[in-house]
Amino acid sequence: MSRRFFRHGELPLVLLALLAARPRHGYEVMSELARLFGPRYRPSPGSVYPAMEALEAEGLVEGEAREGRTTYRTTAAGAKALAERADDVASLEVRTGARVRSSESLEPTLERFKARLAPLSGHVDVKAVAAILDRAAAKIESLDGLATEERKQ
Length: 153
Prior knowledge:
The chain is mainly α. It has helices spanning 10-21, 26-37, 45-57, 76-84, 86-96, 107-117, 126-143, 149-152; strands at residues 24-25, 61-66, 69-74.
């Protein structure tokens, strides 16, 4: 079994997600990585900074040096790359239990849900799953308190 915590390409993806949430300097990124993934993963400058530099070289993040620190933020290309790999982020979140994306949208939750259920395809009763999901959707719809006659039909 591999001793590596992140699989190939996951660390840059996590960095993009963290920087999409808000601009950060390297120390803040390392602190957030430790908070999200510790104690199983300990970020090191020898892995984080080269990954940030590679993202910058690819034009996915940009750094602004000020007062001896460089603050990084995602670029439009970085946001697009992150969106294109949303399924990979969801799989990482399911595997690690950490939530690297912050959002007021249901999209990250639905992507994690899909990532959890995908391996079960062909191994579960599809009709039973559909019934469970229909009941869950109805319950979720009732949460907004604005259920209209139109939606009930």
